């Protein structure tokens, strides 16, 4: 889940190199939502070269704070627009 991924990298040192396909898909969803900035593989390119997360944007940091202030348990977050980033289920904002 992208928001869990965002929470996982919240205190990472950037730039952050990622190699796992699921993490790259999460990063792509979060970048599309402008919650992070990243250098991602081009569509159709193999993800085996990895991706580089440059930073969590101010909007991404604000979203993390908002969720924390609401007392949300990041393991239980189920935001409709961020509900899956697995390779077989690409979704963007407002996708159904």
Task: Give the gist of this structure.
This protein has 96 residues and is an alpha+beta fold. The chain has helices spanning 2-9, 21-32, 58-70, and strands at 16-18, 36-39, 51-56.
Query: Quick one: overall form?
Result: elongated
Could you name the CATH topology? Arc Repressor Mutant, subunit A
Number of discrete helical segments: 3
Just name the CATH architecture: Orthogonal Bundle
Determine the oligomeric state from the structure.
Answer: single chain
What distance separates the N and C termini? 15 Å
What is the residue-mean pLDDT, rounded to a whole number? 80
Question: What are the low-pLDDT stretches, counting only 5+ consecutive residues below 50?
Answer: 74-83, 88-96
User: What structural category arises from helix and sheet content?
Assistant: alpha+beta
Number of strands: 3
Radius of gyration over C-alpha positions, nearest whole angstrom: 13 Å
- The first-level CATH class is given as Mainly Alpha
* Helix percent band: 25-40%
Strand order of the largest sheet: 1-3-2
Strand content: 5-15%
Question: How many structural domains are formed by the residues?
Answer: 1
């Amino acid at each position: 889940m992208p928001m869990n991924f965002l929470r996982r990298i919240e205190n990472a040192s950037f730039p952050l190199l990622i190699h796992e396909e699921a993490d790259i898909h999460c990063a792509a969803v979060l970048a599309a939502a402008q919650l992070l900035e990243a250098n991602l593989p081009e569509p159709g390119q193999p993800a085996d070269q990895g991706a580089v997360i440059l930073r969590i944007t101010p909007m991404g940091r604000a979203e993390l704070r908002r969720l924390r202030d609401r007392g949300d348990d990041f393991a239980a977050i189920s935001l409709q627009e961020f509900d899956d980033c697995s390779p077989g289920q690409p979704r963007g904002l407002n996708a159904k």
